[in-house]
Amino acid sequence: MSNFTSKKINFRLRDAYLYRDFIVMDEYQNYMKGQGWCVKYDNGKTLCTQKTKKDCIAWVDQYYQDMDDFTNSSVFIND
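Given the sequence above, the corresponding structure tokens read:
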């Protein structure tokens, strides 16, 4: 798998990181910094809540790996 980098962005007046097609951000950055990292689509829907940014990035990588495994599975092979 290729190494992807996160890019710091401003999302809804908060600091966040764009990683692949997801937004990774700390939900509580003004109050309890570092306590509620989430993976979101840019429409705001939360996919999961993790404890660290690193956990969120690992979740996104696993998501893409699972999608690749499904796409390459025998479900799509025509006999």
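The chain has one helix and five strands. Try to locate this feature in the token string yourself.
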